[in-house]
Amino acid sequence: MKTETTIQGLTASLAPARTAKKLIGFVPTMGNLHEGHLTLVRAAKKICDVVVVSIFVNPIQFGAGEDFDSYPRTLEQDSRLLADVGCDIIFAPSVDQMYGKQPRLTNISVSQITNDLCGQSRPGHFDGVAVVVTKLFNIVQPDYAFFGQKDYQQLAVIRQLVQDLNIPLEVIGVPIVRAADGLALSSRNGYLSEEQRSIAPTIYQLLKQAEVGLGEGQSLSQVLANISTELTRAGFVVDYVEARQPNLQPIDEFDRDLVLFIAAKLGSTRLIDNLQINFKT
């Protein structure tokens, strides 16, 4: 496994694969890797000849007061984990390598589907994601890119920009990886105290209870209100509890194919989760 820190070095490392017309898979990450990330790499290995994993904490997707400076940088540990699952190349550029010394005058915004949910709570976040992902796609030029469905809205944003900008790759969403108690794996889970970690699985428990309630005929508005009430009772500060169509369009009444979304803070840690629900007719 190679580790490249420059665009030039990565291009050189990928040249033999391109010449041989091998399939290149790409998993973009911010590092501090966990089983969720490794699942993405395994998915990439199944269909690609060469797998590139980027490790880059992207400053322009963090807002004021967010955790850019404190976000864990664990490259040595990440490298060992990636070697174990068969990653071929790590791309770990500096901020200067990604953005240069000159001011960035170009922005990329995906409208409508970024207006609410995390887009409302974190203004500018998805613009930062869109810019860095587009840059990484241009640098790596993969055939396939793999993203986790925990960040469902982010996945939708990336699918949209790939479609709108005719980026020649296929985006593959990989199901959420959970701990044994149901908590969606996230690098930010490491911020939780022992007590908070024991409370955090309440999010998934309430999503599953909501699925049962909807199946039993409870109204969507009542189900969403119950989730919010129970999260608050458990000690969370609720950001949003929402239901959307799979394409992120709003819905008012229960639909047989929907996604429930939660974002809530436990102490200073912001957690997100979602559950896709499809009741067969």
UniProtKB/TrEMBL annotation:
Subcellular location: Cytoplasm
Source superkingdom: Bacteria
Residue ranges of the TM segments: none
Residues annotated as binding (R)-pantoate: Q61, Q154
Name listed for the protein in its UniProt record: Pantothenate synthetase
Gene: panC
Keyword Nucleotide-binding included in the entry's annotation: yes
SUPFAM superfamilies (UniProt xref): Nucleotidylyl transferase
Catalytic residue positions: H37 (proton donor)
